[in-house]
Amino acid sequence: MAKLERSSLRVEGGDDMHAIRHLLIRHGVNYDHEPWRSWFPSIDAVVGARDTILNSSTVETAVSLSSGRAVGFVLDADSSVPDRWQAISNRLRQAGVEPPAAIPAEGFVGESVQYRTRVGVWLMPDNQQAGNRGEGTLERFLETLVEEKDPLFPYAREATARARAEYGASYPEGDIRKAVLHAWLAWQQEPGLPYGTAIRARYFRHDSPLAMSFVAWFRRLFEGD
After folding, report:
1. What is the pTM of this model?
2. What is the number of other CB atoms lying within 10 angstroms of the CB of residue 205?
């Protein structure tokens, strides 16, 4: 297999990929113009089931092919942060990384002695909160990017709940966060934009404390490569 030409950030799905890319653009990591600066990683959605990163040798393979370039992984926390971190830690050890007992609140950045590269992990939404499988951890992250005093957002919550309880809306209960965000996005100046494009259009803010923490983790992992 060919070695990586630049650092790489692996994420779980296209929504994550586009949301992260446009959030970073808002923070001055300008993916809009090529050639990119040398330290900008490629942002790659891992194809397949949600647990493809952990159910295969994806972590070890990505690190082993890094040629010393940094590699990062953004995954959902799921129902138990300690259990999820334990599963990831097992993969990290196979790649020559010794992780701490618990993931730091500011995200994990470590070193693979074996492959001489930095390796990072961020558990959506904030490395601390768990949720039911499929609950929408990206959506929980994005909720922090809605202006606190936006009057439409609480109304989107109310209307979405009523649509299911009183009018037969058939979205799964575990997708309520996603349904609320899409209802809110449907009421913007340009209705129904995807997450990444909505961040670019500034319907979302970019500077919530959680967003700032994520961008700081990203820069710590990749900047200077």
Report:
1. 0.93
2. 15
Distance CA 157, CA 187 (A): 13
Torsion sign, CA atoms 127, 131, 48, 88: positive
List the domain boundaries for the chain: 8-132+208-222, 146-193
Residue-wise pLDDT tens digits, 120-165: 999 999 999 876 554 558 999 999 999 999 999 999 999 999 999 9
Q: What's the token pair of residue 166?
A: 């009183």
Q: What is the pLDDT of residues 49-60, one digit of tens each?
A: 556 777 667 898
How many CB atoms neighbour CB 33 within 10 A? 8
pLDDT of residue 1: 47
**Cβ neighbours of residue 150 under 8 Å, at least 6 residues apart?**
none
